[in-house]
Amino acid sequence: MEGIYAKGEMRAKRFEAEWLADSSEYVVREKDADTNELVRAVYQVDSGERSVASAEVATAKQDPLVSPDGKQVLQKRGRNWIVREIGSGKTRRLFDDEPSGDVSYRELAWSPDGSRVLFVETDSSEVQLRNVLVPDDPSYPSVQQTRFARVGTKIPELRVGVVDVEGDDAGSVTWLPIEFPEQGGYFGEVSWAGSSDEVLVERLSRFRDKREFLLAMVGGTVSTIFEETNDAWAVGSHGINSGVKWIDGGKSFVFLSERDGWRQAFAIDRDGENERPLTPGDYDIIDRAEPGDVVDEASGWYYFYASPDNGTQRSLYRVPLDGSGTLEKITPGDQPGWHGYQFSPDRKWAFHTYSTVNTPPVVDLVSIPEHRSIRILEDNQELQKLAQKTITRPTEFVQLKLSEDVTVDASVTKPSDFDDSKRYPVFVYVYGEPYLQTVLDRWGAAQIDFLRTIADLGYITVSIDNRGTPCPKGAAWRRSIFGSLGPLSTEEQAAAIQELGRTRSYVDLSRVGIWGWSGGGSNTLNALFRKPDVYHLGIAVVPKPQPHLYNAWFQEIYMRTPEVNPDGYARSAPLGFAEGLKGKLLIVTGSGETNTHIQIIEGLVDRLIELGKAFDYMVYPNRDHGLREGKGSEVHVRMLITRYLLENLTPGPRPGSTPAQ
């Protein structure tokens, strides 16, 4: 545990570099072999020849706070922002009026001509305050108040402004006439639309069931380019669908949408006309390539990540920008697993990172689209040796058929000394909510280092992605949980464990434990309360047993509010099913939680006490959601989970039997 969480022994080295604008070279910060000093080394793409960069070498990556001409930079000072001249060091206020109270300015962006700065104002002054104890004087602790927008309450007010940087109007703000209904809403992308006079604003409804792309003239009119609605949501909590990529010199842009049943790319002209699909077909775009869209306009290609045949993996694909829809896989077919790319500006080269759940990442320089490996950039050699030594039995991926229409992915990790003639207890790691997958063929995925450690103590560790998780299996899969997080995941997780036991003789269904963090903690509670004959132990880390007390930003996407959806909240809340508890339960949280705050959990603690249920409860003082604060915390919480498991769910094999067919 110390090796994993304190020393980071299983953490891969990353390769970090920046491309030069002409794509002929890249810059790496590294120690000079002769001087041992940190230098900026420049490598030629073709030859690999190395030189030390001068201070003047400019890379293609631009700091968004630096003006387009490179002469000025925006900096935060107190509550205000300043403009600093890079050459002279002189500074001046960006805004005439400094934001006050709970008002802040964010997402600042220079206009193309450097005369203006675009920004979003966030006003949280009407968001309700929560009292939080400050760990100062132990006898007389102070109380700090923080803004917390709970489900169904007031959320921050937002508006878009443009401030002039030069001339007689410098410091004055023009507010764009973009408003929200009384209940409020959110912004997705807010950016300059190819000129210094027009702004693109992606406006999202409070429940994220509607989004619009608006084109606003500074000091002028606002027009709607595109809008879509979805009975569930148009943009989920991970925000993959949000944002645009301008093409054709600003005449049109690319965006993602799931309105046709799959996450696909579309292009549309800036006047809202001539909409056309770029990626037709029954498959999902998993994500954009790199943080933003990757377009090779010179050759006419759009690049993205997908995996049409395996929801646990990710590869690079491309389609023509003309909309002909011919899907082409760029990642080699003999490299199943997880791939990432950092493209050169001309899209002819990329830093390519490849790993699987059992093999650490290797980074190489490849040509695009041939995918010819030019040279290895980071081989993680020491980690490769450690992995070969410690991973004696690779994690396996299986598919479990729950019905004619539903098959779920699962990962299975067995003890190093596994004997398939015997039966082992099962320890399930669950998340099960719309924010993330756990079953991924990627190094370091979803607590896998911890699960391997537990497996070697005599358990089969398992993780399952039920419907409702963000797998690339179509919009209907992801939206199947709309209205109530909890019931469907509970049913499918339990059914999957039963199916695993039915089809694998090594699974001992009389010894099943489950644990999870955050949303996984909630699913752990639901599993233990609603399926007490399936699960015999549960460890719920920072769960949300009262979802109506959770934050509005996340919960309302998937469940709306209790006023709109009272039945959904009643079906979702583990609190309402606590009487079903039979097995052993450990609840873990931190008293410094800012999101899944401790009062959300204390209501369940009170209910279990009222019911006379035996359970265990651990509170880490002043720790937040990740339980990382304080020396030793990360190791301690994993050791706590391990001890509780060993003491309450007998490890090791028992004589086997033939599974029922």
From TrEMBL:
Which Gene Ontology terms cover its molecular function? dipeptidyl-peptidase activity; serine-type peptidase activity
Gene3D superfamilies recorded for this chain? alpha/beta hydrolase, Dipeptidylpeptidase IV, N-terminal domain
> Where in the numbering of this chain does the Dipeptidylpeptidase IV N-terminal domain appear?
58-361
Q: Which intervals hold domain Peptidase S9 prolyl oligopeptidase catalytic? A: 453-649
Q: Which Pfam families match?
A: DPPIV_N (PF00930), Peptidase_S9 (PF00326)
Q: What are the recorded Gene Ontology BP terms? A: proteolysis
PANTHER family, per the entry? DIPEPTIDYL PEPTIDASE 9, PROTEASE FAMILY S9B,C DIPEPTIDYL-PEPTIDASE IV-RELATED
Task: List the protein's name.
Answer: Peptidase S9B dipeptidylpeptidase IV domain protein
